[in-house]
Design goal:
Blueprint (H helix, E strand, L loop, with lengths): L13 E8 L6 E3 L4 E9 L6 E8 L10 H4 L7 E7 L5 E2 L5 E13 L4 E8 L1 H5 L8 E2 L3 H11 L10 E3 L8 E2 L5 H9 L14 E6 L2 E6 H5 L6 E6 L17 E2 L2 E6 L3 H7 L3 E8 L4 E8 L32 E6 L1 E2 L7 H6 L4 E3 L1 H15 L2 E8 L9 E5 L17 E13 L3 E9 L10
Parallel strand pairs: 10-13, 14-15, 14-23, 17-19
Antiparallel strand pairs: 1-2, 1-5, 3-4, 3-24, 4-8, 5-6, 5-7, 7-8, 9-11, 12-13, 16-22, 17-18, 20-21, 22-25, 23-24, 24-25
C-alpha cells in the first residue's frame, strides 16, 4: 500500500521552473513566477502529451526589458523545459527532464501594463511527425517495426525517450507509402496481436506519458497480473480529516465522482462490440468464408469487471443465429503480398497470408469498442504519480433499502486511466481522471 494522498495535496503546489529558450538568440527566460495556470494532459488516444500554460508578463522578462513575446521573440517551436511538483514531492520534469516545444501562442489579454499569454506546448515528436514520411519496406514482427519507426531509424523520429513496447505475436510486411510515422504506428496498432492471443484478442494502444512512449495491448492493460493497480480510491461524503476517515485499504479520497454508463445499445450494436461478422474472399481459389465472432464466447480475454453487460435475449434470432451479427466486414484474403526473402523464397511463399484477417480484424474491432463500456470521471487532490494506462481501484457508496453504507457493486472495481489532467493554479492543485473498462460489476478488492 502506498502512502495516503490527503486533501492537503489539493493546495497550491510548486511550479519549479518553466524556461523558454529563444530560437533566435538562445536566451532562456523562466516564466514560472508569472504562471497563473498550468494544465498537463495525457491520453491513451493521443500519440503525445500536451501542456497548456497561462502566464502574466509585465514587460521586463528579458534582458532588454521587454515582454517574452517581443523580446525572445516568441514565434513558435521554442524549446521549453518544465519541472513541477505536487505536495507529496512527486515531480514531473525532474528525471527524466520534461522538454516540450511551443505549438500555439494565444494573447488572451493585452493592455498598457500587463500581457496575458496562453501557450500550448507539445512533444518534439509531435512536430517532427509533420516533417517526416515513412517510405521503407518493413518485414517481420510488428513490435520491431514500431521500435524502428520511433527510435531505430535515424531517418524517422529517432526519439531519445524511453520506449515501453510490448511484444507482438504476428508478423506483417508493408511499405510505408510516404505516410507519417504516427499514422503508421496507429495503423499497426489495429493489426497487432498480444503474444499467445492469436484468434482470441487483438488491438493495441500507443501513447506517451512523462516516462516515455508506450505500446500496450488492451489485454495487458486489463490484466491485473501484468498491470497491477497503483492506487485505491474511495468517494464518500465523510470529511477526510487529514486521513483519519479514509477507510483501511484505500490510498486517497476522491473530491468529485461522476458515473457515466457508456453502454449505448444502438451505438454498440452498430460498432460490433458484442457480435460481428467477417466475410472473406480468397482470389487465389475463389473460396468464400463467413465467420461470426461473439464476445460472450471469448472467455480467455482479460476483463477489468465481473462480466459483459447481459443484453435482452428477446432480440436474439434463435433460429437464425448467423443473422445476429450487427457489423459486417468484407475483406480480400491478403495472400502473396510482399513475401519475405530472396526471389526463390518469395516464390515459395507466394500463397502465404501476410495479414490474417480471420484471426485479427473482428477481434480488434470488438475489443476497441468494448474497452469504453463503462466510464467514471473522478477529481483527486494533485497526485503526479499517476499516468494513463495505470490501473486503479475505485469505490463509491451504493444505495439500498437497508442504508448500510455498502459500496456500489455494479460500478465499483478496477478501471484503467484513459485520460489525465493535472491542473495547477496559484490556489489549487487537482488531478482529474477519465477511467474506463470493458465490463461491468465489481471485481477484486481495494487492499
Amino acid at each position: 500500500m502506498t502512502e495516503k494522498v490527503l486533501g492537503l495535496a489539493a493546495e497550491p503546489s510548486a511550479i519549479k521552473s518553466v524556461s523558454i529558450i529563444s530560437n533566435k538568440t538562445g536566451e532562456a527566460v523562466d516564466i514560472s513566477p508569472g504562471i497563473s495556470m498550468l494544465m498537463y494532459f495525457e491520453s491513451i488516444l493521443q500519440d503525445t502529451l500536451r501542456v497548456t500554460i497561462r502566464f502574466v508578463d509585465s514587460g521586463d522578462s528579458t534582458k532588454e526589458g521587454k515582454t517574452v513575446r517581443e523580446g525572445l521573440p516568441l514565434v513558435g517551436q521554442e524549446r521549453v523545459e518544465i519541472e513541477f511538483e505536487d505536495n507529496n514531492e512527486i515531480a514531473i520534469g525532474a528525471d527524466p527532464k520534461l522538454v516540450l516545444y511551443v505549438n500555439k501562442i494565444t494573447p488572451v489579454e493585452n493592455d498598457t501594463n500587463i500581457e496575458l499569454i496562453q501557450l500550448e506546448l507539445v512533444s518534439k515528436e509531435f512536430i517532427l511527425n509533420e516533417k517526416i514520411r515513412v517510405n521503407t519496406r518493413y518485414d517481420g514482427k510488428i513490435s520491431e517495426h514500431i521500435t524502428d519507426i520511433l527510435k531505430g531509424n535515424e531517418n524517422y523520429l529517432a526519439t531519445e525517450k524511453e520506449l515501453d513496447i510490448e511484444e507482438v505475436e504476428n508478423n506483417f510486411n508493408f511499405i510505408g507509402n510516404n505516410k507519417k510515422p504516427f499514422f503508421m504506428v496507429n495503423a499497426l496498432s489495429k493489426k497487432s496481436v498480444p503474444v499467445g492471443k492469436k484468434g482470441k484478442a487483438a488491438g493495441f494502444f500507443f501513447y506517451e506519458t512523462s516516462d516515455g512512449f508506450h505500446f500496450k495491448s488492451l489485454d495487458t492493460l486489463l490484466d491485473p497480473s501484468k498491470n497491477e493497480k497503483v492506487k485505491s480510491v474511495i468517494y464518500n461524503e465523510t470529511p477526510e480529516s487529514k486521513g483519519v476517515n479514509i477507510p483501511e485499504g484505500y490510498d486517497m479520497k476522491a473530491l468529485e465522482y461522476k458515473l457515466d454508463n457508456r453502454v449505448n445499445v444502438q451505438e454498440k450494436l452498430k460498432l460490433g462490440a458484442y457480435d460481428s461478422k467477417i466475410i472473406l474472399f480468397d482470389p487465389f481459389d475463389c473460396y468464400y468464408q463467413v465467420v461470426t465472432d461473439k464476445a460472450e464466447d471469448k472467455d480467455t480475454e482479460q476483463s477489468a469487471g465481473k462480466e459483459l453487460p447481459v443484453l435482452n435475449n428477446e432480440f436474439e434470432r434463435v433460429n437464425q443465429p448467423q443473422k445476429n451479427s450487427t457489423r459486417t466486414t468484407y475483406c480480400l484474403v491478403d495472400r502473396g503480398s510482399l513475401p519475405t526473402g530472396d526471389t526463390s523464397e518469395q516464390i515459395d511463399g507466394a500463397e502465404a497470408q501476410n495479414f490474417e484477417y480471420l484471426n485479427i480484424t473482428n477481434q480488434a474491432i470488438r475489443r476497441y469498442n468494448q474497452f469504453y463500456a463503462s466510464k467514471v470521471t473522478i477529481t483527486l487532490p494533485g497526485d503526479f504519480s499517476l499516468h494513463v494506462g495505470n490501473a486503479i481501484f475505485v469505490d463509491a457508496p451504493g444505495l439500498s433499502a437497508e442504508k448500510d453504507g455498502g459500496t456500489d457493486q455494479e460500478a465499483g472495481g478496477i478501471y484503467i486511466i484513459a485520460d489525465l489532467c493535472h491542473y495547477l493554479t496559484t490556489e489549487v492543485t487537482y488531478t482529474k481522471l477519465n477511467l474506463v473498462r470493458d465490463t461491468v460489476g465489481r471485481k477484486g478488492t481495494a487492499s
